[in-house]
Batch of 2 targets.
Target 1
Amino acid sequence: MHRRRLRIALLTLPALVASVLTVPAPVGADPSASTAAAESGRSPLETQESVRLVRIQLTGADMLDKVAAAGFDLEHGLRRVPNGIEGEAVVTAAQTAELQAMGVTILGDNEGFAWSEEADGGIQAFRTQADQPHSHEATVRVVRADWFTTKGQGFLYVEARTTEGQQADPIVTMQLENDSGRRTPFGFARTMSRFVDSGQYMFHRNLFKLDARPNQIRVTSSTGGVATGDVSDWLEDAPPPLTENRGYKSDFVDGYRNPQQLYSRAKEIARQYPDIAEIVYLPNQTNGYQRKAQATIGGTGPSAVVVSSAAWGHEGGNDITVEFVQRPEANLPLSVEVAGKAIRVLLAKDASAGVASTATEVAAALEAQSQGLIDRAHPYRTNAGTGIVAPTSGPVALTDFLDQKRVGAPEGEVPRGPVTIPVLRIGKHRDGRNPGVLIQAQDHAREWVPATTSLESAERLVHNYKTDKETKKIVEGTDVFFILSNNPDGANYSFYNFASQRRNMTNHCPDENADPARRNSWGVDLNRNYRVGSGHDGYSGASTSCVSDTYQGPEELSEPESKNIIWLVEKYSNIKFMMSVHSNGGQLFWQPGAYIADGRITTPRPPLGDEAFYWQSAGRILSQVKAHRETVVTPENVGGSSDVLYSSAGNVREDLYHTYGIYAFGWEVGGSVYNPATGDWQGGSFQPVWEGDPNLVSGHAETMEYANGIMEMFRVAADWGKDKKDPTSKLVPGGGKYSQPVDVRFETNEPATIYYTTDGSRPTLQSPRYEATEFREPGEVFHVTETTTFHWFSVDAAGNIEQNYDPTKNDRRDNYRKATITIRTK
Ligand SMILES: [Zn+2]
């Protein structure tokens, strides 16, 4: 009989909310244009005010959403702290003031939250009832207790919940104690941090240094709840990385790569290794590294006029000049003369020979009479355009500003115009038989390390395929698709014009934000442009403002770069794994990644089997990262991204998981690194020095360590593809006679989801699903008070069903699992 394999992660999203987020007035970068330059007749050098990175503290997700919607750039390096969220913002001096006006705290060098450094706690412990018997009414549950070491230092990370956590007055406090090994007493009491998000209590947590691994922890609440839990290892005893295999070749990438270099190497690899590699071209060209030539003429007041060329700058727009001319006579109408690319606006004169054309009139005349050279002219920003336009002292040259290379940028012309993105496909069998893995790097332009990390992984595959047994298994068992940069236009802008560019180069801004001083604030955040849990559906963490760094675009999938991803996963339906590689944060994410702020309603949570599979895969991937130089991505930064960090509406992961059943990870490479010399965690950067301190922040070291993780993801996929083994499960304790009510739960031998009934019927995929007690916790506990029969089956992450049961058919075997709990109370 043919075996059943199915994926059941295909959840449809309820249409939860139709309302759109409120639209605050955009307040992005607002540097003053250099009006003196414009009036001197020279090219108006509308330079962007200098930006700097500041550390900030926000009170919580609500403030984060407001600040992001107002156009600020707060995406990366964020972390939850007890009093809210800390992060970094790339801002001008004016924006810093604006942030402060919104209530944001600007942190100094040594300010901000730090986990307790003390290894021995020191507060007085709550009185606890020692060894209180387990009760289903326990008010405290241990969510996780993880031990890890990095660079010679041990750490304990604990999450625990109290059922009274939402209570506001008084707030329930929690204390954590640990033992010092097996059969040693609890002690070292510490206060836990209460984590509240969008008004909802999440859990309490702690991270602290410890010199020896505890065996157990105990958490006590101020209302008397108590729970103990075993300490688990996090990324301890990682198997050696592939790089330690004899003869294994690595360390191919020796510096940052612009998109041209990445794509050209991808094509070269396909030529050099035709038996295992090819290029797939994505169908939608990008909008291009190109801009219209522009000028803001006449200052920024009511008489200013903003002009944009019809042609792209490099296709003739940059040759256009515009001059506002005053003639000596009186009583003259406004008119426009065009000679070649030189436009002369002959300003109207009134009866007393005064200049009499308003900005609005001049703009209209330019649009109508410039012989197609100018297709967009308008007053500056929100000005009414009623000011009388002043003559210029000569012709003003329009420019697309793209030739102003950043200091230190490589020489040479950056190709202009739309780009066809090549996908480097590597696999021995590229016919759909093997699980596909999509590695998508650099959605966000300024994130340079994800691109080098992905390229390094591709190089390792092709160079070691013939000589390394493990690599051969990957290449023969998977079908890998590398998009080495999914935002080539923005990436070039980041390399050559504006290092902090995050979005693509599309300009969707209406006139009020279309002047060239806004040019670093245009573009769509490609990772907010997808269809599931999107800002358009009321989810939080994307902006409707075209000058916001999290601008979601005018509609879902408005951008060619996001359309391409959907095209790819629909064309290659064997793609079952995806990693959206970002920097920097030291985080590994999956679903849920977005919520509706009101009530904190997340996108559907993955079933328990998928959640467990995500955790298992994360452990494997991050162990391999750690194996390189002991960088630990801490468990507080792993899980559903909206659970541990923030909501990002319309991200790619939600769409691929919920629409296509693809295990879709989001990775923030290059996060904090523990520095044993200072005893602190040192934060990462978007563009770290390539050869930095090899033990700290370094583009090179991050590329190598995170490439280890990508290679492990391929092995996860290869194992998944080979997994033909049914899962097994059991009810604990099992069926039988009990003299009093009993607590039961399900256990599985591998990540698997259980469907069950208690009414005697056959279990099907529509039956109740066995769920977590709460998110990030193990499976729920049923308190059985009367005789109950459970019918169930389990499905593993690869779709294998326990005992090869067919839940879709009414076959006569009824080969599901059964157990009866008989309760006979006296
Ligand atoms: Zn990013």
Target 2
Amino acid sequence: MSERFGAARIAILHGVVRREEKLLIEAFGRAAEVDLVLLDEREIAFAPASVYGFDAVLSRSVSFSRGLYARRIFEARGVPCFNSARVAEICGDKLLTSLALERASVPQPEFRVAFDETAALDAMEAMGFPVVLKPVVGSWGRLVARADDRDAAESLLEHRAALPSYMHHVYYMQRYVDKGGYDVRAFVVGERVVAAIRRLSANWRTNTHRGGRAEALAVSEELEFACLSAARAVGGGMLAIDLFETVDGYLVNEVNDTMEFRNSIEPTGVDIPGAMAEHVLSQVMEGAGACGRLAS
Ligand SMILES: Nc1ncnc2c1ncn2[C@@H]1O[C@H](COP(=O)(O)OP(=O)(O)O)[C@@H](O)[C@H]1O
Ligand SMILES: [Mg+2]
């Protein structure tokens, strides 16, 4: 970590350092004029009126709450964050994401929300089974459940109701989309879709954490349009967009703020961490701050 005069001082906020973070550290290391600081979220304690001297913070925290609140503090004290706290807040919550997509008229699977078990069952009946029930905050497919009929839905909801967090009592439901054994993940960096993959799986939850396999996908104009519209809808930045390909076109399922790309570099041959480092540095240089040019 060199202290060079005039270098951009970039902090990477992290918890567990995964392969993604190692690759990002390498990518920033290759860039000229970068003074990189690793900021372990487990060690920081924000004091009143702390002065950081960072030109930007790149959040790579896997914890939604830590990544979000740390960014709120940095931004409030004048340090731009990538992505911004607002983008993290929207992307970290499936309902906020759905509302942002809805407002921007970006096609997504039909969704409904209820706070009561009976109201949730009625909503599922109205949509038609199978239905997917998801915690509004969560990742890696955890507790994302499919109910094929009313009986299954009843027991699912009963289990959810017994969980302690309020989050599990917000019943966010989606119509099940027959996606043909795969979904699509595209990586947006600023105003570009830099790479895309198909995630194939025998399991209806195609998360690579659950054994989903990545295969390169050429970025069509239609895919690019869907991804850039979704990115814009949530505020822009560096985002992994998950989509379902249907006969009626792409549906955006979710937008991930802290993108995981380790399984996508090899099949696509795209240097995703390199593109991210370049983006952060160009935004810092432009003084455009955390919002990026896509922000509306
Ligand atoms: N409405 C749906 N229809 C079909 N498959 C779905 C639906 N929602 C989620 N899935 C599958 O489940 C996986 C996990 O759901 P997702 O919404 O991405 O939650 P997470 O944030 O936990 O990854 C998706 O990648 C997809 O394969
Ligand atoms: Mg997902």
